[in-house]
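Worked problem 6 (solution included).
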Amino acid sequence: MTGQDPGASALTLLERDAWLRPDPAATDVTHGYPEGLAPRWMREHHEHPPAGFASVPPGEYEDVIHGWFSRFLGASGAVLVPSCTMAFAITAQAVIQQPGDEFVLTDTSYDSYPRLLAALGATVVYARRDQDGNPDPDSIKAACTQRTRAVVIVCPDNPLGTVVSPGVMDRLLRLCQERGLTLIADHCLAPVNPLRAHIPLLPKLAARRPVSWAALGDTGKMLGLAGTKLGVIACPGTLRPRIDAAASSWFALLPSYDLAVIAAIVSDPRFAPYLLELSGRIGAAFVRLREEIQPPLTVTLPDAGPFALIDAGGAGLDDATFASLLRDRYRVLAVPLSWFPSGEPGPETGVRVSLVRDGTTITRLIAALGACAADLAP
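Solution. The predicted structure is:
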């Protein structure tokens, strides 16, 4: 990734290039979209959308997709947009009142959000995590000023995989209620739950509270249909007019094909069992990593989500050197943790790998990590 614009996202560029021109000899574990895991019935929906779908009013398909997210998130009504990243940008735009308004994010944050906020004229302020990897409510409270407009959390977290505890979520809701802030929760990884963690979903916890909130979702992390995906924004009625106004400036007309295919999939009775199977596959890959990866490499498993962290600190490597070694010697494409923004960047020694892959890819990943561990061993 040398020679790139310093304002660009190295993670996004890597994911884009690996998707556009995949190297068949490389093991790509960068992105969290399911790859090679779509069952035949899902591929049939993708390859053969419902007959006459282009003549069906798009709102009919939207209603089906709204229904699924309403049941999952516990929120009636939602705004559908092309991606979760756009969902965040629209939500931030709806919350910003004037240039310089502040958003509090957690250290080692999902890398697109700080860049989007900066592009929208907002100021990013980072808060610490607690010892369990949760956003630290005390640090978030201390970071708030008169210019603060929102607190942003990702649950399950990306890249660390932590799940915000219900107690922490409740404290953040109370803080936002007291200060008139909006709590924004990215829940796009919540349907992928390999270790059966309890994931507190913001709409359910915020129900009947006089607090501003927005919950973001995504179909791409569930389906992995080569770009056929949608993002979703759920919010209370008090915020909805501002969300609709912000969304109108993007004028994102959703393709009838995408709507028809996704509506057909989420309404198929095989969809719920598929999500369980997908989570089971990831869980099995977690177990293999834990059992087969040897020192000096170590594995950190998440509370939920499709990612695991591989640490090379025992070999004395920083994360960028470790990622370069994996890429150049073992043909593994992974993401250094230092690529995720932080208020106080410190030394990192781990990389993020995605386990939403078929068995062959996981076997190649484990073999490459095993060879790396053997080569790095004293």
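Discussion: The mean pLDDT is 93.
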